[in-house]
Every structure is written in C-alpha cells, then in structure tokens.
Amino acid sequence: MLTDTAIRKAQTREKPYKMADKNGLYILVKPNGSKLFRYDYKVHGRRRTQSFGQYPKTTLKMAREQHQTSWDLVAKGLDPMASKLKAGDPDFETDTFGALVADYIANLKAEKRAEATLNKNRWLLQDLAKTLHDKPVRSIKASDILPVIQSVERQGKIESAQRLRGIIGSVFRFGVARGRADDDPAQALRGAIRTKKVRHHPAIVEEKQLGRLLRSIWAYEGSATIAAALKISAYCYARPVETRYCRWDHLDLQEAIWTVPADLKKMRVVHDIPLCKQAVQVFREMHEIRQSDFVFYQLRKPDRPISENAMNSALANMGYKDIHTSHGFRASAGSILTKHKYADKVIELSLSHLEKDETRRAYRRYEFWDERVEMAQGWADLCDNLRSRKLHELI
After folding, report:
1. What is the CATH number that goes with domain 4-76?
2. Can you provide one Gene Ontology molecular function annotated for this UniProt record (predicted)?
3. DSSP 8-state code for residue 15
4. pTM, whole model, 2 decimals?
5. What is the pLDDT of residues 13-25, one digit of tens each?
C-alpha cells in the first residue's frame, strides 16, 4: 500500500510507472515529476481509468476517499465517472470544450510551435469546431463530434475533415492528461471519414519547358512578393509551406543558409537549405522592401504570409494551370538533377525526403553538405542558362 513518505521519495524514471495502493487505486509517476492518482476499473465490459488529481494537491487520504466512493459504485455495476456527471460536479458545466481548446493552443504556443502550426490549429478548432465550444468536455460523445466533421467532409474538404478529427482527439488527450476529460471520443471515429485520393502535383520535368516557365516567372507583372517567392521556389526547390512561412530569422545570408524549423517539416526535424548566389540576391532584394517578419507577406496584412494558393494562382495566370504548381519545382529539380548525374543520395537529402530511421533523421542535415552546396549552385546556374536561352531554342 502507498504511504506519503513513499510517494514523496518516488524518483522519476525514463518512462512513466505505477505505484499501487489497493483495489485498483495507484499513483502514476511521470518522467516530468508529476504524480497522478488513478483508478483502473472495468464496468459493462469496458475498461476505464478515473483521475483523482495530482499529488500533493490531492492528498493520499483524499484520493482514497474518492476511490472508495467509485469502488462502491463499480461493485453495484455503475460507472463512477458517469455517476459523477449526473451528480452535478461543478466542473462539469464550467469546463467547456472551448476552454480546453484555449488551454491547448496556449500550451502549443508555450512549446514554441511554428506560427503556421498555431494558425492551422486555431482555424480547425476555433472555426470548424466552434459548435462544440459551449459543451462541457465530459458530456461530449463521438456522436456529437461526427456531425461537425461531416459538415466539413460534405464541402469536399476531405483532408481538413481528417485533420479536424485528429486535432479534436489531441485536445481530448490533452484534457485526459490533466484530469479534465475521461477519454478521447474522437478515437471511435477512425475510419468514419472518406479517405482522400492521392493527388499528384503537376510538374514540368523537361528542360526546355522549364526554361519557358522560368522566362514567364521573370516576366511576371503581378505582385513582386509572389514573383520573388516563385523565384525562390525555383532556385531552392523548397516545399511551398516552407517558402510561404520563411522568416528573416530563418536566414543567414552571410553564410548562405536557410534553416527550416522542425514545425514546418513533416517529420519535425530541422532542415538546412544551402542558398545559391542567385537566391541570396533575391532575398536581399526582398529585405529592401521588408515590412514583416515574414519574407513573403500579404500586402494588406503584412503580419501574415502569402496565402496557400497565391503562387499557384500566379502560375495559372501565366498559363500553367494543371501543368505546373509551386510544389512541382521539387519534381523538376529531382528529375533534371538526376539526368545531370548528381548522386541520388545528395538529391534526396537536398529535397529533405522523409527518413524512417529516427536515429539517422537527426543527422541528415549535416550529411554531404559540401556536395549539396555545389549542387544547389549548379542547379541555379542551370536554371539561369535555360531561362536566358533564346525563345527559338526553347521550342
């Protein structure tokens, strides 16, 4: 059985571990030092875990008293957490999903997540899931969440619907860890949403056609900011989200390095992009008209990056709709660089393709750096050569 002395002296370990009391009551010691009272029980064939609070705010005596009440209910075939809701727990009405969302977003901000991540989560949770905000957290069931997700799905936004289910689940798991939710009802909705067909990004992978495209970009008379973003996309073959959310503090123009933070990467690993001389010049030109922490910002709202469709809309206006997208420059570079006999490994690292091995993933940013620098400059020079060819040579 537990004692106050044993709990106080309990040391943290690399992984969470349990210290048992009796009849299913235990304290969970987590790596961060928190010590949480829990009660595992089974009722109506379903296993559940009830939280009684964190030690020492919740004393051993208090936890045992709460546990005894719950244990008596389980013995009668009743769910203590359901009974608690019916009994009118004061936290039931005041701790709403909206309040939990606000704390979840604040926690992401405290973890210094990228602004892109914060904005995406705010949009999903505060806009798309707003009908859940006034509901008490513990009252929400899968049947409450499903219509919210389906309303997004009916608009044809399959990927957003899938992300919404996932982020709602993350909020509930955040609540469970803090004793504010009993489980994750969104978990039951796995497979309830249609899967999105894989979309391939149109891309030009032939040199003459790429030369014509580059001439069109350099002749573009629309937004100078979007034109510059397209030039950087062509020279650096970065993902569109990396270009859009590029900030001045990501750039070291003196050393010619663009450091993409982990939150903008699929695998949450920092990626360094070697900058060719031409890209450095484009960035310097943008710095002369700087109005924001973002390099490529919206003219009417300088505190925001250019929109997700800005570069693709510009390409469409140039006549490249369904022919080439801003993401397509990655395919262009990958295909043409291969033809020019650059090593596959160097190309893969430069494109920052996903690495399944977590140990190797952390070291990839340093591998073949000199070769990547050389290839980055070679690619930019090739782009300039293709762009400067006479028109009849590109037909």
Report:
1. 3.30.160.390
2. DNA binding
3. S
4. 0.54
5. 988 899 999 889 9
